[in-house]
Write a structure and sequence with these properties.
- The protein is of the alpha+beta class.
- It has helices at residues 2-24, 111-116, 157-168, 197-211, and strands spanning 39-47, 68-70, 79-84, 90-97, 105-110, 124-133, 146-154, 174-181, 184-194, 216-220.
- It has two domains: 39-133, Barwin-like endoglucanases (Beta Barrel); 146-220, 2-Layer Sandwich (Alpha-Beta Plaits), CATH 3.30.70.1070.
């Protein structure tokens, strides 16, 4: 009788121990997936110079100055509004890469997008993601047009970065886009963004007076 009681007690203790261990190693609460119409809270990080010009997961060259981002699951071409929880600052980015691959992080922003949120120095920030539009979706909300002014285009990245540094002393948002054309690789220096064509034209006139050349007005969503 005592032997039977001891055996049963051992089994109970063993079961309790297994349950306790299972509770200790249970995974963190799963971050909700991001679908059209809902939001996702989590941590954002950013990536930049060491990846500039290299192919992203979508196949297009990564431009550290463009407003793009990496997400694990959203289709390429999805536009997402990223809001920094602490300050309320917002930026709208286009998904063109995969990542981040560090636990707890939900989006990897380009350097340019991270600058919009003022999170370069801190490296990471708590953010809220909201889908603005999905690719090829007739029910998606429209992404407002944004205007950029191209101040110059150069064969070498060094020339482009030299102009970018000069422009950055006067303008908050300056990017370098690298494109491959039949004539070769070009590095385009652009200032933005402007809410209307009229404000972009005014900026183009100022750029021409201050830096010369023939600035071009570009429109993007």
């Amino acid at each position: 009788m005592s032997r039977s009681f001891s055996s049963s007690t051992q089994h109970i203790y063993l079961l309790l121990g297994l349950l306790l261990i299972a509770g200790c190693v249970a995974p963190d609460k799963k971050i909700p997936s991001l679908n059209n119409g809902n939001s996702q809270l989590g941590m954002a990080s950013w990536y930049g110079p060491s990846f500039h010009g290299k192919p992203s997961a979508s196949g297009e060259p990564f431009d550290m100055w463009a407003l793009t981002a990496a997400h694990r699951t959203l289709p390429f071409g999805t536009w997402v509004q990223v809001t920094k929880v602490e300050t309320g600052k917002r930026v709208t980015v286009r998904i063109n890469d995969r990542g981040p691959f560090i636990k707890g992080r939900i989006i990897d922003l380009s350097y340019g997008a991270a600058r919009e949120l003022a999170m370069i120095a801190e490296g990471t920030a708590d953010v809220r993601l909201t889908i603005v539009s999905l690719p090829n979706s007739s029910i998606s909300s429209r992404v407002p047009s944004r205007f950029w002014v191209q101040a110059g285009a150069f064969r070498t990245l060094r020339e482009a970065m030299t102009l970018r540094e000069r422009l950055a002393r006067q303008y908050d948002h300056v990017r370098v886009q690298t494109v491959n054309l039949p004539s070769g690789e070009w590095h385009r220096v652009q200032v933005g963004t402007f809410p209307s064509k009229q404000t972009a034209q005014a900026a183009a006139r100022t750029l021409q007076n201050d830096f010369g050349g023939t600035p071009l007005i570009l429109i993007s969503n």
